[in-house]
Write a structure and sequence with these properties.
The chain is α/β, with parallel strands linked by helices. It has two domains: about 1-55 and about 250-295, no CATH class; about 65-225 and about 300-450, Rossmann fold (3-Layer(aba) Sandwich). The protein is about 40% helix and about 15% strand. The chain has 16 helices and 14 strands. It has helices at about 1-10, 15-25, 40-55, 120-125, 150-165, 175-190, 215-220, 225-230, 250-260, 260-275, 280-295, 300-315, 365, 395-410, 420-425, 440-450, and strands spanning about 65-70, 70-85, 85-95, 100-105, 130-135, 170-175, 200, 235, 245, 300, 325, 330-335, 345-350, 375-380. The strands form three sheets. It has a nine-stranded mixed beta sheet with strand order 1-2-3-5-4-6-7-13-14, sandwiched between helices. Strands 8-9-10 form a three-stranded antiparallel beta sheet. The longest helix is centred in the first third of the chain and has 17 residues, at about 40-55. The protein is globular, with a radius of gyration of 23 Å. The two termini are about 35 Å apart. About 40% of the residues are buried.
Length: about 450
């Protein structure tokens, strides 16, 4: 019922939104002399705020049509490699002949579209052949299609990595760190020749017992039935995915906004001031960010609930009890990170991350204890929040170069980074990766000292 009420509210506000858009257009038009006055800019600013607060933001485009390599502009073409009911595998094909490392960038299925990683892709493009998982809005997938849960997610990743071949490097941003680690573990257990050369896990909930956030505390203080009753609804009948059970995007957005409500309110107040003052550049920066941030999609309920239970309530992966259901045999298979011996591991965390706090991602090193320490690296980014790990200046200038160096360290047959590019963003020596924790052994000790046991141990 809540989903239908939300849709009704949106429909009822349509006249208000249209009127606000007309007023904004009138008082922000360069042909209207009033747009150059304080009163005109004030009316235009107020109208734009109303229009944006009542608008529904659609699926954003990546819009990456070019990059620069060795000081030259290179065209980029977005290609669909694989199209499945809940995901498209995209490749940003560069019109240049280079043998650069092949990257599978796994975007989170946690409310926002994969285009949220536009800045991530943009920074990687000059020196990598980039593929990305572009997840589909569940309300657009007909109910007749397959059910999608965490097991299906892992299956998709295994299929993508097998398709891309053994010289692949996988990067997981936030939520997919767990399914990526699980998928690589399963491939290692089976001695799959298509195991990736390296795996980079960025700000993800590998072991949420280590440090607490609002996200982990909510999950640990509520039974799974509470989530099913409180946030799972049926898609309205007029969408292609009618009657599919989902965690609606608008509810997820409410949760995102409430975690930092003061910051968002302050941002909108600054936006209003910029409009009144005629600061078009600052206003456009606000629009660009929030056009992306406010674009959300529905998540399949099966995937959401299984993730909550597996990752946040029962902590099955770090406890060695996670299993994957093989879609071909319908058998449950143990997920064993300790079997990983080929795939090098880099973990990345941000000092100010309030979604996946310090230690949650580095726990992967303890789980992959059969992996040679020569293949394990960690980077702790100071003064960096969750989104800053994969977007913005610190990502471009400090984190991406470390990833670039790490990947090429385990892919020696690829072309070298052009000298002109290194003048702009130099490589980082491998010894600097772990300087904040003095090596992987210290990471493991820190995890053991800081892990908090789950409040709720399951019966098995």
């Amino acid at each position: 019922m809540l989903y239908q009420l939300h849709e009704l509210q949106h429909a009822l506000l349509t006249p208000v939104r249209i009127q606000a858009e007309m007023t904004r257009t009138l008082f922000q038009s360069p042909w209207n002399i009033l747009s150059y006055t304080q009163a005109g800019r004030t009316l235009g600013a107020g109208a734009e705020l109303v229009e944006r607060m009542t608008r529904r933001f659609g699926r954003p485009e990546f819009g990456l049509t070019e990059t620069r390599i060795d000081g030259r502009k290179v065209d980029v073409v977005e290609k669909i490699i694989v199209e499945k009911p809940f995901c498209r595998l995209l490749n940003f094909s560069r019109r240049i002949k280079r043998n650069d490392p092949k990257i599978l960038l796994v975007a989170p299925m946690s409310g926002h579209y994969a285009s949220l990683l536009r800045g991530t892709v943009e920074a990687l493009l000059p020196h990598h052949d980039v593929y990305i998982t572009d997840w589909e809005d569940a309300r657009q997938v007909p109910l007749a299609e397959e059910m999608f849960n965490l097991d299906t997610y892992i299956t998709y990743l295994r299929e993508f990595m097998s398709l891309m071949g053994p010289n692949t490097h996988v990067i997981a941003v936030c939520q997919p760190t767990v399914p990526v680690l699980a998928a690589v573990s399963l491939m290692a257990s089976e001695k799959d020749p298509n195991q990736p050369l390296s795996m980079t896990l960025m700000g993800g909930p590998v072991d949420t017992r280590i440090s607490k956030t609002q996200v982990t505390e909510l999950a640990e203080t509520r039974p799974l039935s509470w989530f099913e009753k409180s946030v799972v609804y049926d898609v309205p009948f007029y969408y292609p995915g009618a009657f599919r059970r989902v965690y609606p995007g608008f509810l997820q957005l409410t949760g995102f906004m409430s975690m930092n409500l003061d910051r968002h309110v302050g941002s909108y107040m600054k936006f209003y001031s910029h409009l009144v003052e005629g600061d078009g550049e600052s206003a456009e920066a606000h629009r660009k960010f929030y056009n992306e941030y406010l674009s959300v999609m529905d998540i399949p309920a099966e995937f959401y609930l299984q993730t909550i239970e597996t990752v946040f309530i029962r902590h099955l992966l770090p406890r060695g009890r996670m299993k994957w259901r093989d879609p071909h045999t319908d058998q449950l298979v143990d997920v064993r990170p300790q079997d990983i011996e080929r795939t090098a591991l880099l973990t990345i965390e941000g000092e100010l991350d309030d979604i996946s706090a310090r230690g949650q991602t580095t726990a992967a090193h303890e789980l992959c204890h059969s992996l040679s320490q020569k293949k394990q690296y960690h980077h702790f980014q100071l003064e960096c929040g969750h989104y800053g790990i994969f977007n913005g200046r610190r990502w471009r200038e400090e984190i991406m170069p470390r990833i670039r160096h790490f990947i090429r360290q385990f892919d020696p047959d690829c072309d070298p980074v052009p000298a002109k590019d290194l003048e702009t963003i130099p490589d980082i020596a491998p010894a600097l990766y772990s300087r904040d924790v003095h090596g992987i052994a210290a990471v493991r000790r820190w995890i053991k000292e800081n892990r908090q046991e789950s409040h709720r141990e399951d019966a098995d």
